[in-house]
């Protein structure tokens, strides 16, 4: 499916219908206001319906907007988006293989910082460690291009920046007790509600670009998700915001909030350094203080998660008292449930 591009006539008709506040707008008014023929209105209205707008038409009365869309369309997100650069460019697709792959392509072609790719569903969503990410309709699947002015060695903090931002957005928008599981999951009641994938292109001393992929199980059916992912190694249970709330979330508001929180935390990192991020992350941590299993390639060990290092690494105390630094990468960390 092609990218959703704002057609000026569609948007003008939409503006007229929205302004009418649930009342009919006659074909004549639309035709005069938007300067299209009466016959062409029908074509534009059909296109708007494909974007999820519920529009009623009645002979002799005209057209009435019954319900706006909940699709994450650029022209719906942008007007009340409170950011300076994140989301100024948004590419929306109904279906895509992976928002991450397209965002990487755009970054390679010098897309401006803050460019966002978002889709209603992904056919080949990617997760960490080469795994598959189930991304049916109802979720928030997006990738953001950033160009941090930080040394490559410090980029390991970025997953924590992103998970902190998404956790904050969910807390504020949905009033749910979102916690952070190292390095980059957001959990609710111990189950995964969001996964984050950070990929980058860098040189020895400088980062060219970073693409932060965010997958939020917003209004997805958890049972459907489980059938796809329950046998994945490291799986510890999935949930959705809809399941936790018992009602659908407003995906447009939550998306705006995620973009705004991400920009805020990212600017904090660039201006003030990693300490402010780590302290805030620790306050919401679901990992610190728990006994964890760390699986790294063929190796696996158990220890107590005691702290986060200056660069985002997890510090794990082994049974012999030694402390091991775990850097996010090809590892998964699982809290060991106590038997009491
Ligand atoms: C993980 O938990 O391992 C990370 C999952 C990241 C999923 C998101 S959805 C949007 C973006 N596009 C992708 O293909 N993956 C990320």
Describe it.
It is a single chain. The chain has 340 residues and is α+β, with helices and mostly antiparallel strands. Helices cover 32% and strands 27% of the residues. The chain has ten helices and 14 strands. The chain has helices spanning 8-19, 27-34, 38-50, 74-77, 99-108, 158-174, 222-229, 241-245, 251-272, 275-283, and strands at 54-58, 62-67, 90-96, 116-122, 140-146, 178-181, 185-188, 191-202, 207-216, 291-296, 299-308, 314-317, 323-326, 331-335. The protein has a seven-stranded mixed β-sheet with strand order 3-4-5-9-8-7-6, sandwiched between helices. The protein starts with 7 loop residues before the first helix and ends in a 5-residue tail after the last strand. The structure holds biotin (BTN). The site of biotin has 19 residues, from α5, β5, β8 and β9. Biotin (BTN) binds at residues 98-100, 122, 125-128, 133, 135, 141-143, 195-197, 213-215.
Structural class, by secondary structure, is alpha+beta
Number of separate strands: 14
Bound molecules: biotin
Radius of gyration: 22 Å
- SSE order in H/E notation? HHHEEHEHEEHEEEEHHHHEEEEE
- Strands ordered across the widest β-sheet: 3-4-5-9-8-7-6
**Gap between N and C termini:** 52 Å
Classify the beta-strand content into a percent band: 25-35%
Percent of residues in helices:
25-40%
Gross morphology is elongated
Q: What is the number of helical segments per DSSP (H or I, 4+ residues)?
A: 10
User: What's the overall average pLDDT, rounded?
Assistant: 93
The biggest sheet, with number of strands, parallel, antiparallel or mixed sense and barrel status, is:
7 strands, mixed
Q: Low-confidence stretches at least 5 residues in length (pLDDT < 50)?
A: none
């Amino acid at each position: 499916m092609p990218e959703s591009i704002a057609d000026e006539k569609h948007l003008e008709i939409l503006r007229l219908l929205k302004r009418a506040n649930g009342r009919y707008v006659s074909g004549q008014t639309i035709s005069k206001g938007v300067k299209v023929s009466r016959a062409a209105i029908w074509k534009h209205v059909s296109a708007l319906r494909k974007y999820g707008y519920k529009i009623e038409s009645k002979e002799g009365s005209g057209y009435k907007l019954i319900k706006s869309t909940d699709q994450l369309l650029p022209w719906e997100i942008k007007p009340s988006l409170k950011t300076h650069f994140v989301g100024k460019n948004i590419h929306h697709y109904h279906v895509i293989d992976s928002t991450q792959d397209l965002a990487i392509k755009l970054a390679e072609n010098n897309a401006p910082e803050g460019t966002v790719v978002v889709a209603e569903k992904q056919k080949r969503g990617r997760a960490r460690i080469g795994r598959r990410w189930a991304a049916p309709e109802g979720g928030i699947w997006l990738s953001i291009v950033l160009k941090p002015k930080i040394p490559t060695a410090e980029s390991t903090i970025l997953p924590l920046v992103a998970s902190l931002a998404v956790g904050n957005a969910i807390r504020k928008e949905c009033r749910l007790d979102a916690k952070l599981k190292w390095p980059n999951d957001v959990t609710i009641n111990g189950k995964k509600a969001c996964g984050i994938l950070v990929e980058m292109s860098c040189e020895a001393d400088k980062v060219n670009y970073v693409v932060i992929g965010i997958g939020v199980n917003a209004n997805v059916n958890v049972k459907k998700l489980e059938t796809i992912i329950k046998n994945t190694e490291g799986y510890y249970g999935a949930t959705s915001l809809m399941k936790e709330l018992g009602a659908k979330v407003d995906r447009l508001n939550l998306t705006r909030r995620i973009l705004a929180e991400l920009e805020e935390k990212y600017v904090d990192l660039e201006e003030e350094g990693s300490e402010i991020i780590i302290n805030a992350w620790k306050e919401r941590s679901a990992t610190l203080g728990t006994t964890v299993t760390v699986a790294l390639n063929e190796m696996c060990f158990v220890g107590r998660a005691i702290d986060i290092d200056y660069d985002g690494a997890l510090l794990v105390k082994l049974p012999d008292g030694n402390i091991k630094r775990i850097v996010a990468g090809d590892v998964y960390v699982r809290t060991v449930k106590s038997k009491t």
